[in-house]
Design brief:
Keywords: Acyltransferase, Transferase. It comes from Amphritea balenae. This is GNAT family N-acetyltransferase. One of its GO terms (molecular function) is acyltransferase activity, transferring groups other than amino-acyl groups. The chain has helices at about 20-30, 35-45, 95-110, 125-135; strands at about 10-15, 50-55, 60-70, 75-85, 115-120. It has a single domain, classed as Gcn5-related N-acetyltransferase (GNAT) (Aminopeptidase). Helix content is about 30%, strand content about 25%. By secondary structure, the protein is of the alpha+beta class. The longest helix is centred in the last third of the chain and has 15 residues, at about 95-110.
Length: about 150
């Protein structure tokens, strides 16, 4: 099934010079990641054959999606996990996130993945409804244990 497409956003692979814009998008989600750290992460993802795409509208980076590919040990299936998806709050509700999810789905298929998965914060109820509307299913719970720095 193809998700509804946004017709007016260009999508391309992220470059290190996009780091400041991506950092600002992450801040909108509450993640305080510095511009140099984002540049480092972009380089790391490229070395591991993972993908980061940015969405550009009106010559401005207004969205980002980050994909990692891995083999899930219990069933030996290759999966694509979306580790970040952010659309600038000024551009939301215009189909930009859906366009990036289409790109993620296409990339997952090209990589031979059997599924596309993501996690989202429990407090983002509208986001949960959005993903379910697009065909994602809630299949598990995520438990996290913080490890303090020593």
């Amino acid at each position: 099934m193809r998700l509804k497409q946004c017709e007016y956003m260009n999508i391309r692979v992220a470059r290190t010079e996009d780091s400041q814009h991506i950092s600002a998008l992450m801040h909108q989600l509450g993640y305080q990641i510095s511009t140099p750290k984002v540049a480092e992460m972009i380089n790391n993802h490229q070395q591991h054959n993972d993908d980061i795409y940015v969405g550009i509208q009106r010559n401005k980076i207004c969205a980002v999606i980050v994909l990692i590919y891995f083999t899930y040990f219990p069933d030996a299936q290759k999966l694509c996990r979306i580790t970040a998806l952010v659309v600038d709050e000024k551009f939301r509700g215009k189909g930009l996130g859906t366009a990036l999810l289409n790109r993620a789905r296409d990339s997952a298929i090209q990589q031979g993945c059997s599924s596309l998965e993501l996690t989202t914060n429990m407090r983002r109820h509208n986001t949960h409804a959005y993903y379910e509307h697009l065909g994602f299913e809630k299949t598990s719970y995520k438990f996290v244990m913080s490890i303090p720095e020593e």
